[in-house]
């Protein structure tokens, strides 16, 4: 890997295009380096993972809305698939619908460093374009390896949340770069597409603050859709604002750290394999990633505590990010509101820890049910829980050493008797360094569990057979990555009011 210094440049500066970060990203995307076997295997795992969480969210309202919008854009000549239904649809709208299905439950993969990310958000966009253009499985894998690489590298080097910019600003460029690799585009085209995608996908973090709405699920799908359109325009010869990151009126100058700030972004050298997907990790529990280890910690602690009525207070010592994003450092009263949206409760560590402590488990629907959030004993326990930032947990969060990088917490449980019970957990059980790391068996298990009652066993088996054979799927065969369900399943979805389309 090579570290690239990225900072604002004046328009009058001699700043050749070869030094633009967007050009360097394009060079990585255009590099025909082979995909390592372990990267390929993990790509397959994440396609399975996305299908699992999409099956679980299929009849939820935001997913139903996005699906209805996509189905209003059929494509009879060519087209992409929309998860759950038959037919061919415009690829950018299929990517939109499938991206919302993946993101709705906050239940797929994650990578945390200087910024937050869910790199699996790249998959829906690349699969839709691959289906539409008749791309084969090997090229899809190549594209996804690039998309993960670029997103992870940007997340390592550039913090967006520090300046209240939403993390999908790294997703637009990664989708554009991944599409560039998959379609074997020239660096010039990829460069312009990356610039357009970044320019159009910067937004504030209010989508993840306060009263969090369904837009949290739509935002990454929007970035994917925009990136597809950007690549289409670039392929037709249209350009982008440049230099998009470094320009005098560019992203760094006005949205991030300003002219005095230099960012260091790692990117692979020419001929260096793209392995960043191996640095990412999926979720065993449907909740914000920084709550994964605390959920496992709560399940372990409940045996030591016994009668939860004897708890006086619980203080979770954790990282800066966890404290300020999903903890009491956020200052969001909504995080303690039983009437808050599912999206808000998903970002409330006190709520999540209380329910996991009481139930000893976590479920993507039951744990968020209104009657669950309103249980008087839960509300009482919930309000006894707070978070504090701990410098050591913050240091470990930002560590570049995978062996010590951590997203957990230390829980200090004070009982009414004055006794204090202390326990900590650095990484979730499902993390590669956790107690029960996810491997292919666990990904398939997650899929079959979440698809149960939604997808027939025959269709489950067909899909798994297809995705495990992804490297060998020929051009035009990627429609096999779609899963269809019986109309009776979709009938359970809420009725959506008509819109424009």
UniProtKB/TrEMBL annotation:
It is an enzyme of class 4 (lyase). GO terms for biological process: propionate metabolic process; tricarboxylic acid cycle. The keyword Lyase applies. Its EC number is 4.2.1.3, 4.2.1.79. It holds the Pfam family MmgE_PrpD_C. InterPro entries: 2-Methylcitrate_Dehydratase, MmgE/PrpD_sf, MmgE/PrpD_sf_1, MmgE/PrpD_sf_2, MmgE_PrpD, MmgE_PrpD_C, MmgE_PrpD_N. Pathway: Carbohydrate metabolism; tricarboxylic acid cycle; isocitrate from oxaloacetate: step 1/2; Organic acid metabolism; propanoate degradation. GO terms for molecular function: 2-methylcitrate dehydratase activity; aconitate hydratase activity. Residues 285-470 form the MmgE/PrpD C-terminal domain. Gene3D superfamilies: 2-methylcitrate dehydratase PrpD. Keywords: Lyase, Tricarboxylic acid cycle. It catalyses: (2S,3S)-2-methylcitrate = 2-methyl-cis-aconitate + H2O; citrate = D-threo-isocitrate. Residues 19-262 form the MmgE/PrpD N-terminal domain. PANTHER family: 2-METHYLCITRATE DEHYDRATASE, 2-METHYLCITRATE DEHYDRATASE-RELATED. Monomer. Belongs to the PrpD family. This is 2-methylcitrate dehydratase. It comes from Mycobacterium rhizamassiliense.
């Amino acid at each position: 890997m090579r570290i690239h210094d990225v900072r604002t440049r004046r328009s009058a500066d001699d700043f050749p295009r070869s030094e633009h970060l967007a050009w360097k990203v394009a060079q990585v995307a255009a590099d025909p380096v082979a995909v390592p076997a372990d990267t390929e295997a993990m790509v397959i795992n994440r396609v399975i993972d996305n299908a699992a969480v999409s099956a679980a969210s299929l009849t939820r309202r935001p997913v139903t809305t996005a699906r209805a919008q996509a189905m209003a854009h059929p494509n009879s000549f060519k087209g992409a698939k929309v998860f759950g239904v038959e037919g061919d649809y415009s690829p950018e709208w299929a990517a939109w619908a499938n991206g919302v299905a993946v993101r709705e439950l906050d239940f797929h993969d994650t990578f945390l460093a200087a910024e937050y990310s869910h790199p699996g958000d790249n998959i829906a966009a690349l699969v839709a374009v691959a289906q539409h253009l008749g791309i084969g499985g090997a090229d899809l894998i190549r594209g996804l390896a690039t998309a993960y690489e670029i997103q992870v590298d940007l997340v390592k080097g550039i913090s967006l949340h520090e300046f209240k910019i939403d993390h999908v600003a790294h997703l637009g460029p990664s989708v554009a770069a991944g599409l560039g690799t998959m379609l074997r585009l020239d660096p010039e085209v990829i460069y312009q597409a990356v610039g357009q995608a970044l320019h159009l996908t910067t937004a504030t973090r209010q989508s993840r603050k306060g009263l969090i709405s369904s837009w949290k699920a739509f935002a990454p799908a929007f970035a994917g859709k925009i990136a597809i359109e950007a690549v289409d325009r670039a392929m037709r010869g249209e350009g982008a604002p440049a230099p998009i990151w470094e320009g005098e009126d560019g992203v760094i100058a006005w949205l991030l750290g300003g002219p005095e700030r230099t960012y260091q972004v790692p990117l692979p050298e020419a001929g260096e394999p793209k392995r960043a997907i191996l640095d990412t990790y999926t979720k065993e529990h449907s909740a914000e990633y920084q709550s994964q280890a605390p959920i496992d910690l709560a399940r372990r602690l409940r045996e030591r505590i016994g009668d939860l009525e004897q708890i006086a207070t619980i203080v979770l010592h954790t990282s800066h990010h966890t404290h300020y994003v999903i903890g009491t450092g956020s200052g969001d009263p909504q995080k303690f509101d039983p009437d808050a949206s599912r999206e808000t409760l998903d970002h409330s560590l006190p709520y999540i820890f209380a329910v996991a402590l009481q139930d000893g488990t976590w479920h993507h629907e039951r744990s968020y049910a209104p009657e669950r959030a309103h249980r008087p004993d839960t509300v009482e326990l919930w309000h006894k829980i707070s978070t504090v930032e701990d410098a050591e947990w913050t240091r470990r969060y930002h560590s570049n050493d995978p062996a010590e990088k951590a997203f957990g917490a230390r829980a200090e449980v004070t009982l009414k008797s004055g006794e204090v019970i202390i326990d900590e957990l650095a990484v979730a059980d499902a993390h590669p360094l956790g107690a029960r790391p996810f491997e292919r068996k666990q990904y398939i298990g997650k899929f079959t569990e979440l698809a149960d009652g939604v997808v027939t066993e025959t269709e489950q088996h067909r899909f798994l057979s297809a995705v495990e054979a992804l490297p060998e799927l020929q051009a035009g065969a990627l429609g096999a990555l779609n899963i269809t369900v019986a109309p009776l399943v979709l009938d359970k979805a809420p009725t959506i009011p008509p819109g424009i389309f």
